[in-house]
Amino acid sequence: MRKVATTIDGPEATGSRLAGWLGRMALAACLAAPWAAAALVPVLVPEVACAQQDDVAVDEGDVEPEAKSYLTFLFEALGIKYVVVFLALSFGLVALLVMCFLQFRRSVLMPPDLNAEFEKLLDAKEYQQAYELAKNDDSYLGHVLAAGMGKLQSGYPAAVEAMQAAEGEEAMKLEHKISYVSLIGALAPMFGLLGTVDGMVTAFMKIAQSTTTPKPNELATGISMALVTTLIGLWLAIPAIACYAVLKNWLQKFNADVDDESMRLMSRFQNVAKK
Questions:
Q1: Which residues fall within 8 angstroms of residue 269, CB to CB, at 6 or more apart?
Q2: How high is the pLDDT of residue 253?
Q3: For the chain, which terminus, N or C, has the lower number of CB atoms within 10 Å?
């Protein structure tokens, strides 16, 4: 009769067998369904789960901010004070250019109807009616002819002198109008330079007041103001200066044309003697 050896398992042996059983079950589950490994890894290896959570947090922090439109960037970079300044300059420039281009036309400064009717009255020797026609006309040529007709009683040289004085006065009025276009062309880059200095001061204040290295987006606020104000100032100054040069040339041409036409119409009075 053989003796059956019996052993009493202690807690350590029981735990060992339980761990081995769990390990085999986990291995079998992973082999049967690979997706189960992903579910068991956080339970069996908590350090791996923590590392995965950290990676997710880092990835969420690397999300890029929403892109802004170009106009929105310009508006935010300028700031409200420079937006108001450049809008005022822009509207003023547009209004002046529209007014000047509407007025600096041959049909406005030298109306063909006035020219034809005035010459017709002179041919009919209706000098008083010709004077009234020129006097009631508010054009450049009308003012010059009215000044000359008003001085005919003092002789032809006096009439020519009066016409030249009227030409100078009318030319000065037109010159004053286009001078505002030149003024905007000079002020726009100056405001741009002011914004450049203002933006750079803002950027250096960030550096001076920070105990650590400032972030790039903090410095970008002042730098973007410096660059955008200069850009807008040049956008306004370049067309303003170009339009002023064009209007200046037109004015000189119209001055010469009015002088030639007025002298042609008044040349028939060359033999008028001074009374």
A1: 152, 156, 159
A2: 93
A3: N
Question: How far out from the chain centre does Cα 7 lie?
Answer: 94
Question: Given pLDDT bands bounded at 50, 70 and 90, which one contains residue 269?
Answer: confident
Q: What is the pLDDT of residue 25?
A: 53
| pLDDT at residue 183 greater than cutoff 50 | yes
pTM of structure: 0.68
Categorize the per-residue pLDDT at 4 as very low, low, confident or very high, splitting at 50, 70 and 90: very low
230 domain residue, yes or no: yes
Q: Is residue 244 part of a domain?
A: yes
pLDDT for the residue numbered 250: 93
> Which among 206, 252, 246, 245 is positioned nearest to 226, based on CA atoms?
206
How far apart are the C-alpha atoms of 148 and 266, rounded to whole Å? 8
Q: What is the CA radius of gyration of the chain?
A: 45
φ/ψ (deg, to 5) at 4:
-95, 120
Contact 148, 160 (CB under 8 A): yes
User: Which residue range(s) make up the domain with 102?
Assistant: 70-267
HSE (CB half, 13 Å, CA atoms) of 101?
11
Asked whether residue 39 is domain-assigned, the answer is no
How far apart CA 97 and CA 241 sit, in angstroms, is 11
Number of folded domains in the chain? Answer: 1
31: in domain: no
B/e letters for 102-115, b = 16+ CB within 10 Å, e = fewer, are eebeeeebbbeebb
Per-position DSSP letters for 13-32, written without gaps between them? HHHHHHHHHHHHHHHHHHHH
Cβ atoms of residues 181 and 242 within 8 Å: no
